[in-house]
Amino acid sequence: MTAGDPDPQTTREAVRRLVLAGASVVELGFPYSDPIADGPVIQASYTRALSKKPSMETLLSLCSSMKDDSLIQPVPRLGMLSYSLIHRRGPEKFVQDAASSGLSGLIVPDLPVEESIELRSLCAKSGIDLILLVTPTTPRDRALRILEACSGFVYCVSITGITGERSELPASLIDQLGWLRDQTNLPLCVGFGVSRPDQVAMLRTHVDGVIVGSALVRHLERIPSEGMNAALDSIEALARSLCSAVNP
Amino acid sequence: MSAAVSMVPDKAGRFGPFGGRYVPETLVAALDQLTQAYEQAIADPRFHAEFEFHLKSFVGRPNPLYFASRLTAQAGGARIFFKREDLNHTGAHKINNSIGQVLLARRMGKPRIIAETGAGQHGVATATACALFGLPCTVYMGEEDVRRQKLNVFKMQSMGTKVHPVTTGSRTLRDAINEAMRDWMATVESTHYVLGSVVGPHPFPRIVRDFQSVIGKETRAQCLDQLGRLPDVVIACVGGGSNAAGMFFPFVDDPSVRLIGVEAGGRANDPGQHAATLSFGKPGVLHGTMSYVLQDEDGQTADVHSVSAGLDYPGVGPEHSYWRDSGRVEYTACDDSSALESFYLCSRMEGILPALETAHAIKEAMRIAASRPHGDIVVVCLSGRGDKDCYEIARLSGQDLETASVH
Question: Which strands, in side-by-side order, build the sheet including B377-382?
């Protein structure tokens, strides 16, 4: 879920619905003006969130409010954001704020392993995970260095491209997941391009988790025409069908 | 100033604290491949010979170092010279880099080219290089720039390039870069992204600077040959900063040469009204590199404005940030109306219609020349010709070229 799309209250309600549907981890995307790794759905969501000009303080207090919500609290929340935002606040301050807002980990999609040394040690000091990404274009020797630096789980990018729904996942994905499984004890979670229960069913025996973003966030586009409850109901229904495909 | 100024970037693409690589993991392998291909190319005399051949026979290099005698008289001080990048094929310095990078793409066996463009000059230059070598090309261009630069859109399309209007964000250069990066994320195995300025992740700032350094190398040799010495001041406009980087780099180890970069001062000094990143920005991360950036207090990229479509960029090349902080290059700004004035002045006094980007640098050259003795030499990088800007300048002057008649 994008934090603040279209406003913090809705985000919190959407997260409650995801928890009710059975989500085991919730990823909160911090909106950024120039998201190069994201497809049109997430970008539009960021644009909607940013149109209200939420400050970083507002987004962090949204995270804090989930820590105080007894339904959401047991389910770990992760922050997903551009290093541009982290750098501007100061990595040390940001990591402290993230930890005290109840986030269990960070995903920083534009911070490759070489540039991640400082943030990694700050995260370790604050007791939160820095989740790194492995993609289909990552050479195997490089993947080994990423696995060594990664904590929490490994974010396995399914496709070469940006976030967003895809009708097909590449067959080579299963091979790569098998290889990764042999190299690490960290849980493997697949994201990018996953939107349907049948894709989840195909992946379930190969992975420990499936990450779905655009397919859920897309429903928030309908709030102006159909109202908030209809959008949240759709999100909950999709999340429920995805979760039951994980544990049929 | 020690010789070490030119010894950048390091292996990680760092210019002091600036530069580096802040990109999605998907792009890292392609950037590594590009770095390796570039290292091999510059160690290969055949690559240099091929690059130089095309610069000479296709681009028309070397272009002249021209004495602007009437502007010199008007300023009433130091002699002003123009390095005539406007006389290159396609009318600007951008072609130097496009030829170099398309040659690299061929070496890497990548059959498709993409590029971003602001004013359209880099798009036209890349479309031209792709036509020359028979490669398919897609250029991303903000919708606002498509409106301002119709002629360049027509030129690109005529050469077989697909122009993709970008409708997200501010619909200008910055959004065009975002879209080009997204395309590259999905097509990286078969596509080379010809980035047009000294911005973006390592190794682009270095590659673009090196290909553009032909400007400064020729200027340096021409000064020694025609004038018997190095210039006293060298001035160039800075958006992302490619013509300036190419002009300045061969002079950075010459402590007697004062280097001045001129950014877009826009309408005013308030946020959103200018694009003077090095005057008003702070270090931050944008488009894969650490450099000065115009951002709000949370790190969201600020809106920018310039009369010139080639200068309205909220970031700047990391090497410029390094030169700024080390004090090797001074950076200043020229506002919209001074740039327009300077466009008309140069057109009337020298018979040269400069690009609006270039007009920013000419304004500063007039100011600097006026304060120095006649024996001094001020060189301006005349980065491009103004044909592309005529419609926009006419519009701003209250004329409509579609319906205009001669009085």
Answer: B65-67, B79-84, B377-382, B233-237, B258-266, B329-335
